[in-house]
Structures are given as C-alpha cells and as structure tokens.
Amino acid sequence: MDQSTIEKLKDIVGPNYVADKDYDLIAYSRAWSYEGPLQPDVIVVPGSTEAVSQVMKLANEVGTPVTVRAGGTTTTGMALPRHGGIVLDLNRMNTIYGIDEDAQAITMQAGTTVYGLIKYIEQRGWKIPWLPEFGGGVTIGGWTAFNGVGAGGSIYGRVGDFIIGLQVVLPTGEIVRTGSASFKGARQFTRYLGTGPDLTGLYLNSLGVSGVMTEVTMRVYPIPEALDCISFGFDTSEDAQEGMKKLIRANIAYGITCVDDEMFKTIGLPPPAPWVVQFFAEGWKEEVEFRIGKARQIIAEAGFGNELPSNTIKMLWGGARGTSLRSKPPKRYFCVGCFHSMDTTAEVFNVYNRVGEKYGMNRGMLWWTCQTYANAFPVYVYDELNDGPEAAAQATKEVREGWTAAGAVPDYPGPNPDCTPNIVPEYLAFWGRIKNALDPNCVMHRGQSPVVE
Questions:
Q1: Which domain holds residue 363?
Q2: Rounded to an integer, what distance in angstroms lies between the CA atom of residue 137 and that of residue 158?
Q3: Which residues neighbour 378 within 8 Å (Cβ) at sequence distance 6 or greater?
C-alpha cells in the first residue's frame, strides 16, 4: 500500500489508530482459526461510524480490499485478509447508548463485547436471551454478523431472532439504518415494517461481505426469577438423539445442550456418561420446577437415559463463558460447525467421531438446540507445531463432507473449507447480483466464501 493512502487513513482516524509496522501486521495475521498467517497491509481502528464511512470511500477510491475484525474469535477464517489491504478493527467502537425500557431494547456500537453488554444490563435488571457460543470476548458486531446462537436457543432461537435494527456503512461508504428507525420519526422498536423487504437480514450470516455494522439494537428481557437445569446420561448417540427429540417436542426448555465423553477426557475430567444432555428452564420459580419435573418424567417414560448429578451441568454451563478449551497438555484446537435437523443428530455425532478416531485427535462435541433444529460445533485438539495446519484442514474437510452427505448445512460462511460448490447455482447467482450491487468494486472481504466475485 502506498504511503499516500496510509497518510489519508491517518487523517481520517488519527495517527495513533493506524498501524503498519511488521509486528502489528503479524499480530493481525491470525485469528482463532487454524488458518494463517494472512497479513494485512495496514490496520485501521476507527472510533465512529463517520470514520468508517470515510475509510470505505477511500478504499473504493484506491481499490484496496477491507476486512472487518473485532474480537477475532471466529474459527472460520473470515477475520483474515485474503488479499492484504485494510483490516478494520472495530474494538474501539464500544459505547453502549443505554436501554429503552419501554421498547425493551438496547443500542450499542458494534465493537462492544458481549461480556461488557451482559455486565451493563445485569446491573439494571435485564438480560440478553442467552450466553454466546465463544465466550464474553465476542463482540456484538461479530455475533450479529454470524447470526450466532448460544445456550438458550431452544426458546429464543438465534441472534437474528431478537435483533431490532442496525446502523450499517455500505461497502461504498453510505450510512443507512435498518429496522423501524429507518422510518422518519420512529425509534428502534421493531425489525419489521411495511416499507419493503427486511434489509437487516442482509447482514446476518454475512461476516462483513455486505458492509460494516457500526451499531446494533437488540431486545433485552427482565432477568427471570429462577434458572435451573437437569442433566441426563445416554449410552449411545441414537439414544441421545431420541431423548433430545422428546424434550424439544415438549416445548418446555429454555435450552438443551449436549456434550460427549470425549469432551470430558480432553479437559481432564472423568466422563459421567458417553453422552450428556443438559436441559435448562427459566421463569418463575414454580414454572421452572414444573419444567424440570416434566423433563425428568419425559426421560423416565422413554425408558432410556438416566439423571446425572447437578454439579456436572453447572460446571459445563460455566464453560459457555470462556473462549478457550482447556486441554492437557495445552494445545490449539479447531472447530467445525453445522446446522441440522433433529433426525440427523446421531449421524452428525458419528461423523465427528469417525474423523477424530481416524486422525487420533482428542476432541469434544458441543451441541445445542435452535428452536426445533440444532447446531453442532465439535472441537478437535491438534499439535500445531508438529502437525501444522494441514491436518486440521483435512479433518475439517472430511467432517464437512460427511455432514453434507447427511443433509446438514454449514453454520457459518467461511473458507474452511469453501462450501461454494455445494450451493444451488440459482441461489448463488441471486446472491451474486446482490453482492455486486452493494459492492461494485469488490472491496469487502475480497475472496471470502461463498465466492461470487
């Protein structure tokens, strides 16, 4: 990148918020995926939506790609610049604007961490629907861009199900709002309104390819009187599948999660059962007691599965607050994810185990429901120094192929591996027309999957 462009970036955000030294670029060449290093030409840390807009206009002017980054907790490779250019770090944009209690809504800048948000609203008697999948270091912008999920998805679904509206900088630099605030005189209180298609949806599962989210407004809920859980052990993946199907169909869960004995072994704990299913309930105390009792009754009447001590599940629930997987000895891990229908749960589990056994990898299944379907995102531990990223890439490819054969779909876009060949051509062409209209110079996340450039 020529020096004149770097000087213009310094004029936009200030000289202290532009970095192009080798040690800075190296630090941004990795994220939480096995891939890398992929190094940018310059790092820009804006402090406002207006600054982001100016950066995007300059990027179009000089033709340099832009990759948005915040917490860096993605395992898909989407935070890494595939063609150099600008990495736009949103961590400086972390202002929480406050709660609109009448609308049960909170607006914040996209670089706000989930941990910061949770602490802010808990002190005021409010909560977001659930804990995120990769801990408190996840940013709101990243979480929304992934249309993420978390423990609690049985009732609340995914992030997109409680997003009200966004402020977005388009790839060409224009600033727009989605949701009810796009109508003159209205504040953010609903995502849907009778003015045309739902444009918020363009930014869910987008991971930056549609533009830069700078503000997010989402629903908040009063902290319930009670939250409790019960856990069950199952001997086979097939039994676990059937038990979870019965719990889901009862429509009484706040969240249903599942881990396996391999996870306990990986983190150095004795496994209480081959498959451990956790059922969570929230609400009034009497309501929670009823739901827990009903779950116990459902599994007892099924004739398989046994109740486990409650301390097992409390330990696992606390793990949802962390990003790292503890292993002995410490090693890196990679994650593969899919969404699947409940009737394919056992096959999704079996594919994960077959690949892990083939490559001799310590591993652990992480799984939870999203209303009536499920998200599996197992982790595999590998020796990065001795095996290199090739082993992780090959295992990921084989897991993804097995899941595709079972009818599952990728949970999030990304190049690890590129799923573009499995996308129906008509859908891909449709998305390509939208992408090219939004980003005619292809500056946003250039080269990222699905490839429509």
A1: 226-410
A2: 18
A3: 335, 336, 352, 356, 363, 364, 365, 366, 367, 399
- Give the distance from CA 42 to its chain's centroid: 26
Q: According to the model, what pLDDT value does residue 319 have? A: 47
Buried b (16+ CB within 10 A) or exposed e, 195-209: eeeebbebbbbbbbb
Phi, psi of 221 (to 5 degrees): -135, 150
Can you give the pTM of this predicted structure? 0.91
Q: How far apart are CA 364 and CA 361, in angstroms?
A: 10
22 within some domain: no
Distance CA 355, CA 361 (A): 8
Per the DSSP assignment, residues forming a β-bridge with 367 are 258, 376
Asked if residue 315 belongs to a domain, the reply is: yes
What radius of gyration do the chain's Cα atoms show?
22
Residue 330 domain-assigned? yes
Q: By the 8 A CB rule, do 215 and 166 touch?
A: yes
Confidence class of residue 318 from pLDDT cuts 50, 70 and 90? very low
The proportion of the chain whose per-residue pLDDT surpasses 90, expressed as a percent, equals 66
Q: How far apart are CA 118 and CA 45, in angstroms?
A: 24
Of 170, 195, 222, the residue at which a domain comes to its end is: 222
Q: Please give the DSSP secondary-structure letter assigned to residue 119.
A: H
Closest CA to 280 of 253, 301, 248, 262: 253
**170 vs 389: CA distance, rounded Å:** 34
Burial class (CB in 10 A: 0-12, 13-18, 19+), 311: exposed
Strands (E), 306-440: 306-308, 332-335, 338-341, 363-364, 366-370, 373-376, 379-382, 409-410
Number of domains the chain is built from: 2
pLDDT, mean of residues 286-299: 97
Residue 24 tokens read as: 């800075």
* Rounded distance between C-alpha atoms, residue 403 and residue 410, angstroms: 9
DSSP 8-state symbol, 426: H
Question: Per-residue pLDDT tens for 163-181?
Answer: 999 999 999 999 999 999 9
Helices (H), ranges, 188-253: 237-250
Q: Write the burial class of residue 191 (CB in 10 Å: 0-12 exposed, 13-18 middle, 19+ buried).
A: buried
Residue 140: CB partners within 8 Å, gap ≥ 6?
108, 109, 110, 111, 112, 113, 114, 117, 216, 218
The first and second tokens of residue 390, run together, are: 């090739």
